[in-house]
Amino acid sequence: MMAAAADGLGSIAIDTTQLNMSVTDPTAWATAMNNLGMVPVGLPGQQLVSDSICVPGFDPSLNMMTGITPINPMIPGLGLVPPPPPTEVAVVKEIIHCKSCTLFPQNPNLPPPSTRERPPGCKTVFVGGLPENATEEIIQEVFEQCGDITAIRKSKKNFCHIRFAEEFMVDKAIYLSGYRMRLGSSTDKKDSGRLHVDFAQARDDFYEWECKQRMRAREERHRRKLEEDRLRPPSPPAIMHYSEHEAALLAEKLKDDSKFSEAITVLLSWIERGEVNRRSANQFYSMVQSANSHVRRLMNEKATHEQEMEEAKENFKNALTGILTQFEQIVAVFNASTRQKAWDHFSKAQRKNIDIWRKHSEELRNAQSEQLMGIRREEEMEMSDDENCDSPTKKMRVDESALAAQAYALKEENDSLRWQLDAYRNEVELLKQEKEQLFRTEENLTKDQQLQFLQQTMQGMQQQLLTIQEELNNKKSELEQAKEEQSHTQALLKVLQEQEINVLTVALVNQDRENNIEKRSQGLKSEKEALLIGIISTFLHVHPFGANIEYLWSYMQQLDSKISANEIEMLLMRLPRMFKQEFTGVGATLEKRWKLCAFEGIKTT
């Protein structure tokens, strides 16, 4: 236990001039311990406390022990009071010597002194049980070894409050709780007392703690704000205000494919802001028209990407079919090797390896064929979806390529079944060979048992062959049904096409009849209409490039104020051989104009 205490203060530099308490006189030591109320321990003539753990001389002007360089009090194991040991190790306190007093530890058998709950930011301690003759200088001399003291408030009732500069210094002061303090070498009761050090609640400590908490909260908010600003996505670029110059620049950007996305956002914001008016309507119309022309480019891009995707699918399918054909060739090589002509010349180990390789290649071949069949089924499903989305006449059409793909798939299945038959025949031959070997090697077995075994295997193989033949017949019937359906659908298509042609011809004949009837029924209803036709034809003859309906109406209103533009337009439309309507201009300047074509009609007739 002495060695553990020595380790706690081993880092402290000890001065050569230290105060040691001699215990050569056992009677004097026993008297001093009895006056302090402590049970004397130790043996006569022996030193109870080793020189290595005695506290050296203390100099109050340095606020530290002499012979010690300035140290960081936060480092564990440094300073006057050793750090609290681990909980599983018993705490051993030693005698502390100062210039004016001596501190004796309490009996280790007694329970440790109790303390209250530590207030937040505590820097002040309550010290009770001081000797009556203890002065403020002696208290400062003892507790200044724990750290810098900012204030001491001493009471007349043998207690005081000490405020330290830092919070960790309070823990060192709490370590002195339970020590008995004796002034000098006096045995008077007024010069001794048992110290009780506890946490004290001070308003200054709590205020400083709150200030630190608020400062930390401000720093945390500032840090979070900086983090949010760093992670916040950048704001969108500012959109310029509308002007004729900016509109002209924007129209050029809309025609450029690389700047189209930026320009379309500006156009959208202008329209949403309400920049469209009578004056700027033509410019906005031309820009919207440019945006509409961009649709064709997008559709072309989509078509090219779809074509590339289809080409990639076709290349993958072709590569897969090539791999499958190579697998078929490899399996054919293995099957040829297992026939009797070549099989007899191989050793037993070679036969085993060839059999293993054949089975492995057949499994891979089947997996590849299933994958290819899955791709073809997906294509058939896509084709069926396209047919469902088409018109009723297109739904009845059957794609010949799909039927060819089905026929090719059935042919491949037929080939695979034929290869399986060859494999089963080889197995039968192997069984026959094993039968011969059994006759040679196993003479104990009777001929009846061997025949029964072989008959059972042959029956199983025959059943498998029957099932395979049934599957082949089913596939052939499916092929015939598909061909019949194809021929039937082609006949239906021809009938429907003839019906559609007949319906169209009847509709055209009826429409021509109705047009002739309407033309015959049209004519001049009154003398006023004839007068109007003469005036309008004269006006349009003067204007060879034609005139719009508003111009005609303004001229006719000078002659007849009750006439309307709608009546004039209806009258012109009733006489298509005299008047015709043409469109002039481009884009926003597009305009309808009426021209006189009566002379052209006379020439043609």
UniProtKB/TrEMBL annotation:
Instruction: Name the gene.
Output: ENOX1
**UniProt name for this protein:** Ecto-NOX disulfide-thiol exchanger 1
An example Gene Ontology biological process: ultradian rhythm
Q: Which domain of life is it from?
A: Eukaryota
Residue span, RRM domain: 123-202
Q: Which organism is it from?
A: Oryctolagus cuniculus (Rabbit)
Q: Which Pfam families match?
A: ENOX1, RRM_1
Where can this protein be found? Cell membrane; Secreted, Extracellular space
Give the primary localization class. membrane
